[in-house]
Amino acid sequence: MTTTARHSGSRPATRVLVPALALLLALWAAVPLLWMLITAFKPGTAIRTSDVTLSFAPTLDNFRNLFLGGNRAGTFLLNSLLVTGVSTVIAVTLGCMAGYGLAHWVSRYRTDVAFWVLSTRMAPIAAVIVPLFVMFRSAGLVDTIPGLVLAHLSFNLPFAVWLMSAFFGRVPASVEEAALLDGCTKWRRFLTVSLPMARPGVVTTAVLCMVFSWNDYAFSSALSGPDTATLPQAAGALVTQSGIDWGLLCALGVVVAVPMLVAGLAVRRHLVTGLSLGAVTGE
Amino acid sequence: MSVGISKAPPATAVAPSPADRRPRRTRRRRPPRGLKTFEFAMMAPALTLLSVLSWIPFVILVAMSFAKVRTLGGVSLTFTGLDNWTAVLGDPAVWASWWRSLIYFVSIVALEMLLGLGAALVLHRLLRGRSLVLSIVLLPMFLAPVMVGLLGRFMLDSTIGLYAQLLQAAGLDADLLASPATALPVVASIDVWQWTPLVALILLAGLSSVPPSTLEAATVDGAGYFRTLVSITLPQMRPIILVALLVRSMDAIRYFDIVTATTNGGPADATKIIPLKLYEYAFRFNNQLGKAAVLGLTMLAFSIVLARLFLRFFGERTAGPTQGGDA
């Protein structure tokens, strides 16, 4: 980025102002997260005081209460892992196949199918939950893991299809043609040529599906019960009439956040493509 | 730098373009079209599942909107004609909620676009540590929205909240989430905290795609920073700004976890946006699922318009010249 170098170097004021603003930006984003992290290790007495303090004896009590106390976070964690894992694997597998198909399909209905897929993904959650609730109620799927997996697929499958079709659309045509001339069947070409070339796309899609599923609160809270509650629901459940145990909540927040922050940053290079639904690429 | 999925398939193996113009004998067989193709077979499993998960709920939603729904002891629908529609459309509380939602959506999206642009401009000009700062700035996006809402409550808790105490030190001594006048702006700012990074990320990619040569020309012509920004950079970035705007708008309408976790519509309905009104109909009080369905359909119509815009825009983009090279 040589142009940037030339631009910022131009005036002394900019040389100070830009880093200062960047620091402000970083603080703005990070302070609540850091505060959550710190609070998670604070003993209750240090949390409930109105004096902001950073001197306290770090403790694992909050985490211990979360998992070993009556809070059953272990069960929630297992449910979360199960639902996120299964729905992500299904969404990415079917999404890769369908995305590839959509990227190469020659048909006048292609736009219509693409639009349908996109609008399924974009449907307001509240509008989807109500009929799903009724549907699951009559099919006996409320408060079951398969039901929750299906519910998460309702937003992750169209997302995976759409995004993978964008990623497969970028695999150079020459590579695809060469493979076919070599006598590959189309299926083999998909598996051995296109899929490996779109690997960053597959990983990005998988990570984003995982994040959406892991972080979902609306679907889980409407469609699951005591046996299938997930971690975000546990967060909701910590809010009671008698107040909130902030230490517990922050500990839970750390458990919910850390895996996603790590996974998200791991695919940062392709994040912009994933989150703009394939409309924008680049670093 | 920026590519779109188009209405026309990308020029890949199946593209019939150059071959079509050659004499009949020498060219390859016409590529198969439609339903009996490998491509369609690849889509079939996902599309089947997606049909079950979208068309059946849609039909149910439409049916529910014309019926009284009972869920106790098996689901049953009793047809009631337009009762739900007239009830919902005649309810001033619903209109108030739409109005509130509109204010909420417009203000969060506008704020996120402005702040996101500012952040992108700063990050673009940051020479050292850009990658690190960007990584930090992106973090809020990955936190579960319900946790973001609860974290916001924690930061703003009037007795122990870190931000509440800073505000109190600055003379703002009130429970911001508990007061009807401030609740909506505060909830909005929590959403802005979480989603501005997304806009910044997209716009940063857009900034990097503006060809350096045009900027150099402007500098040579003696244009200042803001002049260049307004008359060259921003117009060049128009397509990407639009992408950010549409993506953010569609998501802003989708999600409501932050509002649920912070105020759940209160105090005194000050933050009761449409999805929460829908929830109130559906799951609270006396299960008026039919009315909830009416609201659901109106929301759906809204988001379909946005998705249409997004897709049309995608098509136009690829038809036009692609911009810039890759980084």
Automatic annotation (TrEMBL), chain A:
<feature type="transmembrane region" description="Helical">
    <location>
        <begin position="148"/>
        <end position="169"/>
    </location>
</feature>
<feature type="transmembrane region" description="Helical">
    <location>
        <begin position="113"/>
        <end position="136"/>
    </location>
</feature>
<feature type="transmembrane region" description="Helical">
    <location>
        <begin position="76"/>
        <end position="101"/>
    </location>
</feature>
<comment type="similarity">
    <text>Belongs to the binding-protein-dependent transport system permease family.</text>
</comment>
<dbReference type="InterPro" id="IPR035906">
    <property type="entry name" value="MetI-like_sf"/>
</dbReference>
<keyword id="KW-1133">Transmembrane helix</keyword>
<protein>
    <submittedName>
        <fullName>Carbohydrate ABC transporter membrane protein 2 (CUT1 family)</fullName>
    </submittedName>
</protein>
<keyword id="KW-0813">Transport</keyword>
<dbReference type="Pfam" id="PF00528">
    <property type="entry name" value="BPD_transp_1"/>
</dbReference>
<dbReference type="GO" id="GO:0005886">
    <property type="term" value="C:plasma membrane"/>
</dbReference>
<dbReference type="InterPro" id="IPR050901">
    <property type="entry name" value="BP-dep_ABC_trans_perm"/>
</dbReference>
<dbReference type="GO" id="GO:0055085">
    <property type="term" value="P:transmembrane transport"/>
</dbReference>
<keyword id="KW-1003">Cell membrane</keyword>
<feature type="transmembrane region" description="Helical">
    <location>
        <begin position="190"/>
        <end position="214"/>
    </location>
</feature>
<feature type="domain" description="ABC transmembrane type-1">
    <location>
        <begin position="77"/>
        <end position="267"/>
    </location>
</feature>
<feature type="transmembrane region" description="Helical">
    <location>
        <begin position="246"/>
        <end position="267"/>
    </location>
</feature>
<keyword id="KW-0812">Transmembrane</keyword>
<feature type="transmembrane region" description="Helical">
    <location>
        <begin position="16"/>
        <end position="38"/>
    </location>
</feature>
<keyword id="KW-0472">Membrane</keyword>
<dbReference type="InterPro" id="IPR000515">
    <property type="entry name" value="MetI-like"/>
</dbReference>
UniProtKB/TrEMBL annotation, chain B:
<dbReference type="GO" id="GO:0005886">
    <property type="term" value="C:plasma membrane"/>
</dbReference>
<feature type="domain" description="ABC transmembrane type-1">
    <location>
        <begin position="98"/>
        <end position="310"/>
    </location>
</feature>
<keyword id="KW-0812">Transmembrane</keyword>
<keyword id="KW-0813">Transport</keyword>
<keyword id="KW-1003">Cell membrane</keyword>
<dbReference type="Pfam" id="PF00528">
    <property type="entry name" value="BPD_transp_1"/>
</dbReference>
<comment type="similarity">
    <text>Belongs to the binding-protein-dependent transport system permease family.</text>
</comment>
<keyword id="KW-0472">Membrane</keyword>
<dbReference type="InterPro" id="IPR035906">
    <property type="entry name" value="MetI-like_sf"/>
</dbReference>
<feature type="region of interest" description="Disordered">
    <location>
        <begin position="1"/>
        <end position="30"/>
    </location>
</feature>
<dbReference type="InterPro" id="IPR000515">
    <property type="entry name" value="MetI-like"/>
</dbReference>
<protein>
    <submittedName>
        <fullName>Carbohydrate ABC transporter membrane protein 1 (CUT1 family)</fullName>
    </submittedName>
</protein>
<feature type="compositionally biased region" description="Low complexity">
    <location>
        <begin position="8"/>
        <end position="18"/>
    </location>
</feature>
<dbReference type="GO" id="GO:0055085">
    <property type="term" value="P:transmembrane transport"/>
</dbReference>
<feature type="transmembrane region" description="Helical">
    <location>
        <begin position="37"/>
        <end position="67"/>
    </location>
</feature>
<feature type="transmembrane region" description="Helical">
    <location>
        <begin position="132"/>
        <end position="156"/>
    </location>
</feature>
<feature type="transmembrane region" description="Helical">
    <location>
        <begin position="292"/>
        <end position="311"/>
    </location>
</feature>
<feature type="transmembrane region" description="Helical">
    <location>
        <begin position="102"/>
        <end position="123"/>
    </location>
</feature>
<keyword id="KW-1133">Transmembrane helix</keyword>
